[in-house]
């Protein structure tokens, strides 16, 4: 990886630019892209914005929106083959924070997909490119969408934790894992019930971020993270176990209290004291 700066949003570069003459490269860029497609025998699709994209593999996972966080492995180069940036391990970003050609183009792929983005200057850097990219340049990116909102990497992390700690866990359709040590013999809550739960919350590295005393905490299951709303319903009153919650069922892209980083898997040892 070089520096992953070339795909950041244009505003980061235009703020320090001079009063460059504004040139419309749209027609020139479109001709250049079409010539590149023909020379390289690509099966490309053109969007209404003027972006061209090639889908080599659609992928089978989630399809991102422009507000999602993604991790993308890529190589960026010009139509003459000059490589200006690349990341084989993957670049992690929210799609709203990158150039328009990425914000739009990545949404045409599902998680696990790969292909090309052929981006005209008006969807990249236009008249104000960063050092190393010519004014009005067409940018080409070979991309692989590694994950959307951490789902794939979270699942691998949870599976590894389960194996390392010899847990017998079940996985739900949502991606939540749970371990039932004791099912309990009282009422089984629904997702709209009030419950009292004693718990300890920690990360897969063992960092403790929250816990209650033995008396627990009372709340309605509609007022907590989705992993709890679903997970507590697998227990009956008096039951105990562990919830292993991926980020999309917890805090997603948000950081919490300086301890829970964006994309964190959360673990909770829980005791369902009462359903009320």
TrEMBL record:
Instruction: Tell me which EC number(s) this protein carries.
Output: 5.2.1.8
* Reactions catalysed according to its record: [protein]-peptidylproline (omega=180) = [protein]-peptidylproline (omega=0)
Taxonomy, superkingdom: Bacteria
**Record-linked InterPro entries:** PPIase_dom_sf, PPIase_FKBP_dom
Q: Which residues form the PPIase FKBP-type domain?
A: 67-149, 192-276
The yes or no answer to whether the keyword Isomerase is present is yes
Q: Keywords on this record? A: Isomerase, Rotamase
Pfam families cross-referenced by the UniProt entry: FKBP_C (PF00254)
Question: Could you say which protein family the record assigns here?
Answer: Belongs to the FKBP-type PPIase family.
* The protein's name in its UniProt record: Peptidyl-prolyl cis-trans isomerase
Instruction: Supply the source organism's classification.
Output: Bacteria, Pseudomonadati, Bacteroidota, Flavobacteriia, Flavobacteriales
């Amino acid at each position: 990886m070089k520096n992953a700066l070339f795909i950041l949003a244009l505003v980061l570069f235009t703020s320090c630019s001079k009063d460059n003459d504004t040139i419309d490269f749209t027609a020139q860029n479109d001709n250049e892209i079409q010539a590149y497609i023909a020379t390289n025998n690509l099966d490309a699709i053109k969007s209404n914005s003027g972006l061209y994209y090639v889908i080599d593999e659609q992928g089978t996972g989630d399809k991102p929106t422009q507000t999602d966080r993604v991790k993308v492995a890529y190589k960026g180069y010009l139509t003459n083959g000059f490589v200006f940036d690349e990341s084989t391990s993957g670049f992690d970003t929210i799609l709203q924070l990158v150039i328009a050609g990425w914000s739009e183009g990545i949404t045409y792929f599902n998680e696990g997909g790969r292909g090309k983005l052929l981006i005209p200057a008006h969807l990249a850097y236009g008249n104000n490119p960063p050092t190393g990219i010519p004014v009005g340049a067409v940018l080409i990116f070979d991309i692989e969408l590694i994950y959307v909102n951490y789902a794939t990497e979270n699942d691998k992390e949870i599976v590894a934790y389960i194996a390392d700690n010899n847990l017998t866990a079940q996985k739900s359709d949502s991606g939540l894992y749970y371990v039932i040590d004791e099912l309990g013999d009282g009422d089984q809550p629904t997702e709209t019930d009030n419950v009292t739960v004693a718990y300890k919350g920690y990360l897969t590295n063992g960092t403790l971020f929250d816990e209650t005393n033995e008396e627990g905490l009372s709340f309605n299951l509609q007022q907590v993270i989705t992993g709890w709303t679903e997970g507590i319903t697998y227990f009956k009153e008096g039951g105990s176990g562990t919830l292993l919650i991926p980020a999309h069922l917890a805090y997603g892209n948000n950081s919490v209290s300086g301890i829970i980083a964006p994309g964190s898997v959360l673990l909770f040892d829980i005791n369902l004291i009462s359903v009320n």
